[in-house]
Specification:
Layout (H helix, E strand, L loop, with lengths): L5 E3 L3 E6 L12 E7 L6 E4 L4 E2 L6 E6 L6 E12 L7 E14 L1
C-alpha cells in the first residue's frame, strides 16, 4: 500500500472524483461525499457544490482541513444508482477510502 500524502493542518485539499457504476456516469448518478477523521464528525460535500472538469468529466471538490481536523482522512462516496432490481428503482452504493493524513 502506498504511503498517504501528508497535508499540514489549516491547508485546503483538492480531490478529483472518478466513479462509474454499471455503465452509468457521474452525470447520471446523484451522489455526495463525506470527508472525515471520525465518522461522528462528517463533512458532507454534495454534488451541487462540486465543479465538473469539462475535459475529463470528473468532479472536483475542495475542503479546508481546519473544518475537519487532524488525522487520517476517509473519503466516503455515496451514490444513488438506477437499478430495476430494487423495489424503488435505485440502489445506494458506498465506497470508502483513505486519502491523506493531516498533520499538526
Amino acid at each position: 500500500m502506498a504511503a498517504l500524502p501528508e497535508i499540514p493542518y489549516g491547508s485546503d485539499i483538492k480531490v478529483e472524483l472518478n466513479a462509474t457504476a454499471c455503465g452509468f456516469t457521474m452525470d447520471d448518478d446523484d451522489f455526495y461525499v463525506n470527508l472525515y477523521v471520525s465518522p461522528k464528525n462528517k463533512h458532507t460535500i454534495p454534488k451541487a457544490d462540486m465543479k465538473k472538469n469539462l475535459e475529463n468529466g470528473k468532479y472536483i471538490f475542495t475542503a479546508h482541513t481546519a473544518d475537519i481536523g487532524v488525522g487520517y482522512y476517509t473519503m466516503e462516496t455515496v451514490a444513488t444508482v438506477p437499478d430495476t432490481d430494487f423495489a424503488e428503482g435505485i440502489r445506494i452504493e458506498i465506497e470508502r477510502q483513505r486519502i491523506c493524513r493531516v498533520i499538526p
